[in-house]
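Researcher: I'd like a candidate sequence for this fold, 371 residues long. If you have to choose between options at a position, lean toward the conservative one.
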């Protein structure tokens, strides 16, 4: 399959979010705590993307071992759980709560009809409410993420790639797209509120979607912007303060090659899928240190901003195995994960694997210990 070359930077400039309320850097700084309250990591329970399951090999015993590592090796106190299967979401949330972690639960759908997404959210919300009542740690419900990209019926296009291609052409009525987006979001919020009594949020594409955050308890962002000057992050994030609500970074990070930080959320797009097997083009060089440095830089930014929490994307990506002696096919280079996965049979997605911490894992672990 050939994937289109797309760049989230093309979406910049589409936004018309008015910066109001607490927008002064000086005023905001005076309100900021010195610690990052929720020190997290995103954890994929298996996401159906283009018909594939990103966690083709799934056992609860494997998951529990990884969640244990999140708590005791990464030193996180929050895990941001996402995935397409309701049972896996609930099992993982239960394991995380048993470890003493704060939990957010996000049903994630690609190209599923809106009615199916609403029903999946209803099921997850019911289970999340049961967990919320059972455990002392907080359970946050994330109603979904990036609907304009992932959900049909908002942006024209039957698939994720068709919708992204439509947006990158720039010939559309943004106000109409935002109207459809907000209408669907409001329906999802109604389902969540009807079945869950805790705090809710949404994983917004921060550079694209204009969310009515008055519907939510927490402003939730997928934030992959790159700025050489940290002050530019403060400037870009300032409009979200006007809602007067805690801000949670549900996703951020970069892949594992030189130049990945600047590519942000589009780092995965370096892979050439035009042949029989995925290939990493020769101009890209594996670079675990760049990923580690970028994550620590962003954690510093979010701590200074006084945000509620931040979770790097993502703990593990078994669908992108590390091939240490086969650079052109080292798919882990195009993975955002803190761990590299070495499968017994790298060509078999259900083959047993072991994971090893990358430099980013060690860097985030040190940060969480100190902060």
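Model: Candidate sequence:
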């Amino acid at each position: 399959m050939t994937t289109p070359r797309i760049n989230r930077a093309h979406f910049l400039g589409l936004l018309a979010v008015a910066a109001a309320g607490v927008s002064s850097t000086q005023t905001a700084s005076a309100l900021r705590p010195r610690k990052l309250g929720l020190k997290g990591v995103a954890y994929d329970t298996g996401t159906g993307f283009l018909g594939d399951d990103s966690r083709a090999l799934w056992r609860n015993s494997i998951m529990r071992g990884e969640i244990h590592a999140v708590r005791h090796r990464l030193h996180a106190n929050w895990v941001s759980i996402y995935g397409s299967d309701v049972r896996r979401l609930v099992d993982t949330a239960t394991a995380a709560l048993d470890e003493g972690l704060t939990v957010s639960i996000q049903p994630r759908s690609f190209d599923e009809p809106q009615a199916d997404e609403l029903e999946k959210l209803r099921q997850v919300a019911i289970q999340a409410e049961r967990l919320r009542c059972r455990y002392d740690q907080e359970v946050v419900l994330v109603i979904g993420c990036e609907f304009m990209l992932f959900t049909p019926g908002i942006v024209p296009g039957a698939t994720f790639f068709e919708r992204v291609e439509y947006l990158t052409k720039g010939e559309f009525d943004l106000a109409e797209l935002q109207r459809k987006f907000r209408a669907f979001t409001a329906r999802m919020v109604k389902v969540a509120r009807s079945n869950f009594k805790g705090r809710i949020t949404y994983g917004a594409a921060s550079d694209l979607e204009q969310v009515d955050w008055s519907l939510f308890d927490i402003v939730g962002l997928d934030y992959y912007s790159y700025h050489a000057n940290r002050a530019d992050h403060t400037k870009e994030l300032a409009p979200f303060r006007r809602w007067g609500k805690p801000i949670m970074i549900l996703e951020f990070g970069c892949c594992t090659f030189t130049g990945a930080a600047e590519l942000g959320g589009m780092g995965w797009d370096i892979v050439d899928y035009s042949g029989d097997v995925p290939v990493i083009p020769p101009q890209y060089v594996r670079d675990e240190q760049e990923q580690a440095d970028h994550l620590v830089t962003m954690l510093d930014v979010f701590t200074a901003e006084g945000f509620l929490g931040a979770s790097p994307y993502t703990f593990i990506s078994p669908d992108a195995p590390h091939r240490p002696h086969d650079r052109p096919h080292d798919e882990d280079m195009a993975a955002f994960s803190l761990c590299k996965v070495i499968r017994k049979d790298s060509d078999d997605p259900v083959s047993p694997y072991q994971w090893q911490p990358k430099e980013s894992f060690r860097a985030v672990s040190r940060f969480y210990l100190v902060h």
